[in-house]
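Q: Given only this backbone (212 positions), what sequence would you predict?
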């Protein structure tokens, strides 16, 4: 840790550590993950795969899934892009995913991504991910702190309203839990419906402007 806010901070238990520019060589699929697969296969429509960064990581998961009886409908897979290596390897990840024969999407996990590459590069990286996924017809999930103030405190900030509006370029937007999440869903639905008239993916539609 090289920087903290004035007065310091406390490290809370069960928090993850990010080690940027460090190849740890750890498997993204843990023993607990493998133990949970039966419940996921039996109850979920899709599986979120954290810290996937190489095509071989997809093969590892596919092998683990193959140890279970097949489903009538293929389990969908959402790869969470959280590390610089994952961004660099995204074309290869998409290519490998297309060979697996299951629905595939990408989550732009901006929290861990910011910790790994620096906050100043998050906007740039999320654009690259959006462009690559659009070119490959891969749906994306816009995640991390969307309407966070509204969800937690009941009142959105101006900045997060703009961020939520930009989420219209993704196919899915993820909200975190909080006491005002229902209000956030309603506001997000209205906001995205309005933005749909302005932009499709990264292409402006140039609709007639109105001041009401």
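A: Predicted residues:
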């Amino acid at each position: 840790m090289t920087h903290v806010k004035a007065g310091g901070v406390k490290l809370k238990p069960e928090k993850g550590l990010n080690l940027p520019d460090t190849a740890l060589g750890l498997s993204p699929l843990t023993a607990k993950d493998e133990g949970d697969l039966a419940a996921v296969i039996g109850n979920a429509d899709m599986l979120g795969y954290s810290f996937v960064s190489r095509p071989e990581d997809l093969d590892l998961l596919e092998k683990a899934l193959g140890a279970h009886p097949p489903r009538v409908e293929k389990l969908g897979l959402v790869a969470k892009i959280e590390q610089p290596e994952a961004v660099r390897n995204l074309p290869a990840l998409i290519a490998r995913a297309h060979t697996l024969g299951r629905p595939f999407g990408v989550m732009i996990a901006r929290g861990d991504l910011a910790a790994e590459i620096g906050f100043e590069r998050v906007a740039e990286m999320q654009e690259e991910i959006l462009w690559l996924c659009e070119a490959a017809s891969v749906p994306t999930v816009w995640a991390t702190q969307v309407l966070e103030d509204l969800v937690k405190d009941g009142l959105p900030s101006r900045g997060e309203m703009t961020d939520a509006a930009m989420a219209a370029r993704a196919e899915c937007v993820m909200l975190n839990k909080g006491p005002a999440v229902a209000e956030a869903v309603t506001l997000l639905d209205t906001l995205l419906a309005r933005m749909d008239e302005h932009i499709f993916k990264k292409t402006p539609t140039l609709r007639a402007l109105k001041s009401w």
